[in-house]
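A reminder from the course coordinator: this example appears on the midterm review sheet, so study it carefully.

Given structure:
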């Protein structure tokens, strides 16, 4: 009788696990935070990507790496990336995405901002620390995009 209860319990637990897994996949739920701030550019995502590559190549204090992509077609691709910046002895890390809005514009969204040296930052824009980190992101990266060719 005891073995039968264990088998029934194990079977029910397995079925529940499978249902939750299928529901997760079907709903396409993920742990992506909404952007803290977005920046619109009047050029395509390919032009934006080229400008980012040029900045990455020319600035030794900056490292840009694409970490993931999502989308259902080549025209609907969203790139996720990490940006590392060094300023003096401080190492900053920013999580962001970029995508094309239409045939003439694209957008960058910052989803995470961190001061890795002092162990500060996060994914939610709710503090003066995050606002300061976003200012650094804008001054050391976003402002360079319009200037790069």
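Designed residues:
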């Amino acid at each position: 009788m005891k073995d039968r209860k264990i088998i029934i319990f194990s079977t029910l637990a397995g079925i529940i696990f499978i249902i939750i897994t299928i529901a997760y996949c079907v709903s396409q739920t993920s742990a992506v935070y909404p952007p803290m701030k977005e920046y619109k550019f009047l050029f395509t995502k390919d032009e934006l990507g080229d400008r980012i590559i040029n900045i990455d190549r020319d600035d030794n204090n900056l490292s840009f790496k694409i970490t993931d992509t999502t989308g259902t077609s080549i025209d609907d691709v969203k790139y996720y990336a990490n940006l590392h910046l060094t300023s003096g002895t401080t190492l900053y890390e920013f999580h962001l995405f970029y995508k094309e809005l239409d045939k003439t514009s694209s957008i960058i969204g910052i989803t995470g901002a961190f001061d890795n040296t002092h162990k500060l930052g996060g994914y939610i824009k709710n503090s003066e620390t995050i606002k300061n980190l976003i200012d650094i992101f804008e001054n050391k990266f976003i402002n360079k995009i319009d200037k790069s060719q």
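The beta strands are 37-41, 62-70, 78-87, 90-102, 105-115, 120-122. The CA atoms of residues 97 and 127 lie 22 Å apart.
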